[in-house]
Design brief:
With 230 residues, the protein is an alpha/beta fold. The chain has nine helices and eight strands. The protein has an eight-stranded mixed beta sheet with strand order 3-2-1-4-5-6-7-8, sandwiched between helices.
């Protein structure tokens, strides 16, 4: 059985990804900071709850110990993320960036490094970084692109950084399958449910990447329709 860990799995994209991967036969650790909400979400779906705060070294270390004791890990889905304050670009401070990067970038690094020994021991280690089209430099610099009117800085910058981490991790771990997924504009708490896609549509790319075999692609950035410009 494929053993999968999803961060930020108590709601939205993480919850739907857990549901779909459980249906696909994965054993899923549903990680969340809040024991009450995370535990309830895992109970609803039949997943295994894992208390995990990606911004806290001790929390991550404790999670690694628990997962290792339960048999190991095959798939890591770095889904935990925050949008940050809605601040116009000229007013965005270093502290605004730091707050978002702590979860969206440093959290992903912290979790992946801590779980590297377990992934190395897996037959086919798979990492899915849940990114965003807002982190695409190609789309952001396109004057006619879909995100030209988006005026926030911290969130897209964090996803651009996560994309680079994806490329570098894929190069550093050639046996792993490491890819970034763009869910698209999906209705979740992150955007006050203004998104135009359902969570099922938003998790199509995440689920597909989480189910890759040894011959699957690595170092890519895709949405449900195919490649996304870096």
């Amino acid at each position: 059985m494929t053993r999968t860990l999803i961060t930020g799995a108590n709601k939205g994209l993480g919850y739907e990804t857990a549901r779909r991967l459980l249906d696909a036969g994965h054993e899923v650790w549903m990680a969340a900071r809040d024991p009450q909400r995370g535990g309830a979400a895992a109970e609803e779906l039949g997943g295994r709850f894992l208390e995990l705060d990606v911004t806290d070294e001790d929390s991550v270390a404790a999670a690694v110990e628990l997962v290792a004791g339960a048999g190991g890990l095959d798939v890591l889905v770095n889904n935990a993320g925050i949008a940050g304050a809605r601040v116009a670009v000229p007013e965005t401070s270093a502290e605004d960036l730091r707050t978002v990067f702590e979860t969206n970038v440093f959290g992903a690094v912290r979790v992946l490094q801590a779980f590297t020994p377990l992934l190395d021991a897996a037959p086919v280690p798979v990492v899915v970084n849940v990114s965003s089209g807002l982190g695409s430099l190609g789309l952001a610099s396109d004057p006619d692109g879909p995100y030209r009117a988006f005026v926030m800085l911290a969130y897209p910058a964090s996803k651009a950084a996560l994309n680079m981490l994806t490329v570098k991790w894929a190069q550093a771990h050639p046996r792993w399958r490491v890819n970034a997924a763009d869910p698209g504009y999906t209705a979740t708490d992150l955007n006050a449910h203004r998104g135009l896609q359902t969570v099922s549509e938003g998790t199509d790319a995440i689920v597909a990447l989480a189910c890759l075999g040894a011959d699957g692609p690595t170092g890519t950035f895709v949405d449900r329709n195919g490649p996304v410009p870096w």
